[in-house]
Here is the input.
Amino acid sequence: MNTSDKAISLKQAGASSSLVSKLIGLVSSSYLVKLTIACMALIAVLSFASPYFFTFTNFKDILLGTAVIGIISFGMTMVLISDGIDLSVGSVVAFCSVILCVSLNAGFGLPMALALTFVGAITVGLFNGFFVSVLNINPFIITLGSMSLVRGIAYIIIGGQPKPFDSDIIRFVGSGSFLGVPIPIYVMLIVLVGLSFMMKYTQFGRNVYAIGNNQETARLSGINVIKTRILVYCIMGLLAGLAGILLAAQTYAGIPAAGNGYELDALTAVILGGTSLKGGEGRLAGTLLGTLIVALVLNGQNMLGVPYFYQLVSKGAIIIFAMTVAMKRN
Amino acid sequence: MEQSALRISKIIKSFDGIKALKGLSLSFNKGEIVGLVGSNGAGKSTLLNVIWGAYAPDSGDIFINGEQVKKISPTKAQELGISIIFQHRRLMPYMTVAENIFIDNMPKKHGIVDFKKMSKDAQDLLKMLSLDIDSSKKVEELSAEEKQLVEIVKACSKNPKILLMDEPTTALRQGDVDRLFTLMRTLKSRGCSVVFISHRLKEVIEISDRISIIRDGANVSDGPSTQYSPDRIVEEMSGITATDFEHQRDVTDSSFSHAGQEVLLRTEGLKVANSQSISFELHKGEILGFAGLGGSGVEDIFESLYGLKTKQAGDIEIENQHATIRSPMDAIKHGLGFVSEDRQLNGEFLELSVKDNICIPSGQKKRLFSMINRSEETLAAASYIEKLNIKTESSQKLIKNLSGGNQQKAIIAKWLQLQSKIIIMCEPTAGIDVAAKSDVNALIQQIAEEGKGILYTSSYITELMHVSDRIIVVYQGQMFKEFSRSQYDHNQIYLAMNGIEEQSGVNDEH
Here is the structure.
């Protein structure tokens, strides 16, 4: 009787404390609130500036345009939280679009081709993870190397030029839609929800935060640091592979030059979304907003007929702004 | 009357209202080596920091060569010829010996560094001090002793008249200090005065001309080192005289002896780093204290048991089963937990909640992609917050927002949550305030009573005696002596840490 009373009172203590913590959480997430406001302000301004902006078709296009980079950015958020970085993602996109194309053209069925593509993606992830985690080499250096290495292999496999392929199902994934919404957007949202759930509610997700926070404490607390970090790079590889399949599905081709610079676009979105470069901190919701803001800025400029060169300048400005804000927040 | 090279008089210095130095005086002559001795917290380091100008004293006077120095700052101290060598080395590992020596004073020619002259100057300086070190070698390639020597040479490049040394031998192996002492004597012969802090009594007596003992921020005694024996130094440092001994021995072994209890941990001939033949047993419910000066090997032993250092030989048995421990993960599997000396370095996740800090180790038992049981964890965290009296409004609060003592309790809680049978505690009260210290120590005794086995070490002997049921003293990597509760004697333990056996005659004199 006594002990159960105690348990109940403890439970109540836990409940009331979780209310307090929710309030604290709301205040500390003010950066997310600010991002949301920025996003809405941007939409408002652009709606006034261009009559073509505030339309269903345009929003669909914006989201469709963010599907590939969004998936990569979500993965990159996890990598950054683990106090790592993966610069090879753009090359993995190209690599996987090439594997898919070549294996389909070689007469493998779609399931086999997809399997080969994911094997390719996870191999790169294992490669990165092995060097970073087992040999403990700086992830920036390793993935800078694999970025070039994987890109080179993609060119070697396909022989320099993009090659077309055909598959009805892949074609549907790339350009079909369900309830008026393009399939890639669903894919992106599924990845977002799945990854958010994993990071927030599983042991693995918490271990990733813990390792990013303090790797030495993580090791002394019995976390399998090596295994966890390898998994982080493998999941990143898989997501980049998925992004590659989506890109191939949208272009009906294996393109060895695809995904060039995606690593930097993803980093921009992640850092703008409030994830710390020092590891241990970050949220996928922030990354979603970061991705959207970048897409809105670029789309708005297109609408307004701003030349591409000026768009490059504004993208650079966003990166610098995001980094400055990130550093000041720390 | 011979003029003192340095004389300080009635120095008072307090921190947050607590007096660290209570009117301390000290003076020494040109070309004299003075050994400054006192327990931890006696004020030795504070005193050195006052002399070289890092701390401004609240009151008191400083005279250099008979002239009063009003305001002393590190820059001023350097101008006056005072140099200091810290406990922790501050050399640049990837630069050469010569570059390190002249790092803030590189010889230049036409505005660029004259490397030829620098290396020649360095070589000359080393030769003058009769040291056989290649000045073009990178510092990382040197031995621990050579690094310490280079640190001193660096200080000597400024021709100091007074050299302050804060535990220069702590990082060195006991007995591995010959060249350091030769160098100190060379400096002495060149008219430089040296103030030297060390816990190693034999060394202090050997090298010093004069010994000055302080306790609780005040002078106790001062005189030629020939008048001092280790026993006398320890007695004066601790303020406990032989007549007090009987008083302390007013305990029976029975309530502290766990000899009949089941053995949780047994080591047999453990060899790690410079320690060897380490064999002991830890019983259920026992707090086994380890005492040893810096570099004695206690840390190596503790870390090897937790898989942080590789043991070269020997056997570890846990609950009478042979245990292979190569990593913390192995150690945890065998029921071990570890509380480190430096919380922020490797004890806690500062940016995570108290709940996560408590529950992460036990969570590792589950499958990697299984869900965290939130309600169960919140309940567990809340129960530890209550049981260990951790002061926090909520288990969701980030651990960094708690006070040091409460952070340390949460760290201990994580091993309780994991149900570790043996907890290794390396200076668990380091860096927390006095009230919290006794709180944490009481907690450690409480969890031992509940049946855990605890390996404990503290650099404060009184604390060690208070907490431990039994103390093993490690000297030069060997188990030197064991004290059961009834044999506890502050001074004898300190002497044993210095490799000095009890001299039965001493007690009888009183």
Q: What stands out?
A: Confidence is low (pLDDT under 50) at residues 1-15 of chain A.
